[in-house]
């Protein structure tokens, strides 16, 4: 299936469930709160911090291995 065909399929199936649609305004979608944005920001910050810590650990391990072989 091509990307264009897939995009058309997704639009046909889910376009009526987007924010502001009748599905959304009648209460069938998940309720949104003011905390959604702050929760997303915290999740992004936590994930970024974890990735940075793992990258730092990889650098330290690589330097230790190089130092032990020389």
Question: What tags apply to this protein structure?
Answer:
70 residues, mainly alpha, elongated
Give an account of the 3D structure.
- The mean pLDDT is about 85.
- About 0% of the residues are buried.
- With about 70 residues, the protein is mostly helical.
- The chain has helices at about 5-15, 20-25, 35-70.
- The chain has 3 helices and no strands.
- Helices cover about 75% and strands about 0% of the residues.
Biggest sheet architecture: none
Which stretches of 5+ consecutive residues score pLDDT under 50? none
Order of helices and strands: HHH
The fraction of residues in strands falls at: under 5%
Rg, Cα atoms, Å = 23 Å
Please provide the count of β strands.
0
Give the N-terminus to C-terminus distance in angstroms. Answer: 53 Å
Q: Treating each run of at least 4 consecutive H or I residues as one helix, how many helices? A: 3
Q: Oligomeric status of the shown chains? A: single chain
Measured as a percent range, the helix fraction is: over 70%
Overall pLDDT confidence = 86
The secondary structure category is mainly alpha
Shape descriptor reads elongated
Summarize the model shown:
It is built from three helices and no strands. The chain is mainly α.
């Amino acid at each position: 299936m091509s990307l264009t065909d897939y995009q058309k399929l997704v639009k046909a199936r889910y376009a009526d469930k987007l924010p502001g649609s009748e599905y959304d305004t009648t209460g069938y979608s998940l309720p949104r709160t003011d905390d959604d944005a702050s929760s997303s920001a915290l999740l992004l910050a936590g994930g970024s911090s974890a990735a940075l810590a793992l990258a730092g650990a990889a650098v330290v391990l690589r330097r230790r291995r190089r130092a032990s072989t020389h």
